[in-house]
Input
Amino acid sequence: MAGNPERRAALVDAGIAVLAREGARGLTFRAVDGEAGVPTGTASNYFTNRDDLLRQIDARLHLRLAPDPEVVETLLRGARDRSLVMAFMRDLMDRATRDRTGYLALLEMRLEATRRPELRASFTRSVRGDLEQGMAFHRRSGLPGGDETVTVLYLAMLGLILEHLTLPGVLDGALEGVSVPEGLVDRIVTTIVPAE
Output
C-alpha cells in the first residue's frame, strides 16, 4: 500500500465528502478518486478494501470534528457553571454548522454501521469513547451535573444537530421567539444542566 500520508489524508477527506453527499452506497474507490481529483485506481493503492476506508474515515472524522484545544483552553478560563456548559455546546453547534459535510458523514457512518456488524463494533467503540471522554472532561473540569447530565445533553444535542443539518425547517418557529439553532442550544442547556 502507498505511504504518502498527505495523499492518504486527502483521499480520506474525499471519502468523507462522498459519504456525506452520496451515502454509503456511493462510497466507491472510483468516487473517492474523482472527488480527490486523482487518477482512477489511486484509492485502491491506499486502502485494502472499503471497510479499511470506512475505518479510516471514522478515525479522521473524530479528529476533524474534535474541539479546538485553544478554544477549550480559552473557555475554561470562565466560571465553572451552566454558562460555561452553554459556551461549550454553542461551540459544538458552531463546529457542526461549519463542517456540515463532516457531521453528515458521521450520520451516514451511523446508518452504515446498522448494516455492517464489523463497522458497528468499531464505530460503537469510538463513539462510546467520545461519550466517556466527555463525561471525564465534565467531571475533571468541575462543571455542574454529572454523567447523567452529560449523557442527556449528548442525546439532546445529537437530536438538534441531526434536525438542523438535515431538516432545518422542522425547528423554525417551533418555540415562539427562540432562534434556531442558537436559542435552542440555550434552552437545551438551561433545561438539562443544573444551575449550580
